[in-house]
């Protein structure tokens, strides 16, 4: 049973309604809801959004990515492309969630750096994140058969770690810039996790990264 199916079943039981009534309210058959709750079938994005509204929880919570029920709610505009009459689904639910986490967290980072007044720190942070995105995009582009003449950096240099080295040096420059900056804003846990509308994303990114790093250290 997946996190989604387990949570879906528990939410219904907490609400105290029957599977038949929940299925009727969600616009599906009882048999299909039973399959979802038992992990036999996986739902589409439209159903996930409907469940979030019905039980008043976030998609992150429903998918087992956070223990906060109201964190990182997905808006209808994130799920649908309304540019045509059919209102087609936009990407996968996991891609949408990951994008929101990364974009929201990057926004908090640069808002705080902007308050520091350090152009060097802002530039280094941008370079660091750009290098990370470059590496992922180039690998995806290559896997999809794209012509690598698009890039000024040749393939052997990329494979040898030229961009990874640039990323590392950007982090060094960032550290130096912060060390020389006298206007770094006062920090507390609330500074990062209480930002209106995006604090939950920051908290989730920090938690996920902590857990991954700890697990990998324990595997060594």
Structure description:
This protein has 220 residues and is mostly helical. It folds into two domains: 3-89, 434 Repressor (Amino-terminal Domain); 93-219, no CATH class. Helix content is 67%, strand content 2%. The chain has twelve helices and two strands. It has helices spanning 3-15, 19-26, 30-37, 45-55, 59-62, 76-79, 93-116, 119-143, 155-159, 162-180, 189-193, 199-219, and strands spanning 80-81, 88-89. Strands 1-2 form a two-stranded antiparallel sheet. It is globular. It starts with a helix and ends with a helix.
Mean pLDDT: 83
Largest sheet: 2 strands, antiparallel
Structural class designation: mainly alpha
Which sequence of strands runs across the widest sheet? Answer: 1-2
Which structural traits does this protein have?
220 residues; mainly alpha; 434 Repressor (Amino-terminal Domain); two-stranded antiparallel ribbon; 12 helices; 2% strand; globular
SSE arrangement:
Elements: H1 3-15, H2 19-26, H3 30-37, H4 45-55, H5 59-62, H6 76-79, E1 80-81, E2 88-89, H7 93-116, H8 119-143, H9 155-159, H10 162-180, H11 189-193, H12 199-219
Antiparallel strand pairs: 1-2
């Amino acid at each position: 049973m997946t996190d989604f199916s387990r949570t879906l079943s528990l939410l219904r039981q907490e609400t105290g309604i029957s599977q038949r009534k929940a299925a009727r309210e969600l616009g599906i058959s009882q048999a299909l809801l039973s399959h979802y709750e038992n992990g036999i079938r996986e739902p589409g994005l439209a159903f996930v959004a409907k469940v979030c509204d019905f039980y008043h929880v976030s998609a992150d919570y429903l998918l087992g990515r956070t223990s906060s029920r109201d964190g990182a709610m997905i808006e209808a505009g994130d799920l649908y492309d309304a540019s045509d009459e059919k209102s087609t689904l936009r990407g996968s639910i996991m891609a949408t969630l990951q994008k929101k986490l990364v974009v929201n967290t990057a926004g908090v980072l640069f808002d705080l750096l902007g308050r520091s007044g350090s152009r060097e720190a802002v530039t280094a942070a941008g370079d660091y994140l750009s290098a990370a995105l470059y590496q992922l995009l180039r690998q995806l582009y290559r896997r999809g058969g794209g012509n690598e003449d698009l890039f000024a950096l040749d393939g052997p240099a990329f494979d040898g770690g030229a961009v990874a080295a640039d990323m590392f040096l950007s982090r060094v420059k960032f550290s130096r810039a912060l060390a020389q900056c006298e206007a770094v804003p006062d920090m507390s846990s609330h500074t990062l996790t209480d930002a209106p509308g995006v604090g939950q994303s920051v908290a989730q990114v920090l938690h996920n990264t902590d857990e991954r790093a700890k697990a990998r250290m324990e595997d060594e």
